[in-house]
Structure formats: structure tokens, C-alpha cells
Amino acid sequence: MIDRNMGKRCIYSDRCHIYQGKVELKQPLFLVKNIFCNNGYRWWSKCEVFRQFEAEEPVLETMIPDEGLRPD
Question: pLDDT by residue (tens digit) across 7-17?
Fold first, then answer.
């Protein structure tokens, strides 16, 4: 199945502290954006921050897309 949103920016990017580069991550921001933010719904839905926005739950400034991206 083809993801029709492939190559589109996450719909929450304008409000996302990750997309805006306000959080320190283990990986460079451009890699995180390529994996989670610019890769369509399939990958947006793997992002914890995206899921919080979708659930209309508070998005904390310390939240990251995935625990594996937390700096040591």
C-alpha cells in the first residue's frame, strides 16, 4: 500500500517543539525530521509527540518521538 502523504510534513510541525529544534536529541535533527516528520502518516503515527497531539493530550516540552532518541 502506498502512503499518500509520503514526503509531506507532519500536520503538527508548526506547533511541534521537536520540529522547531527546541529539544536535544541523540540523532541530528535533520535525520529525525526525515524519519518522523517528513515521511507521511505511517511514520508520523510512530512519533510519541504526534500521538499526543492526535489524542488532544498535553504535549510536554521534554517529549521526544521515541525513547531511542533520548540523549545519554
Answer: 789 999 999 99
Q: Which residues lie below 8 Å from residue 32, measured CB to CB, with a gap of 6+?
A: 18, 25, 65, 69
Phi and psi at residue 54, to the nearest 5°: -60, -35
Residue type, 36: F
Decide if 37 contacts 6 (C-beta within 8 A).
no
Q: Is the pTM of this model over 0.90?
A: no
Domains of the chain: which residue ranges? 1-62
Cα(24)–Cα(54) distance, integer angstroms: 23
Cα separation of 47 and 66, whole Å? 6
Are 10 and 18 a contacting pair, CB within 8 Å? no
Asked if residues 9 and 44 have their Cβ atoms less than 8 Å apart, the reply is no
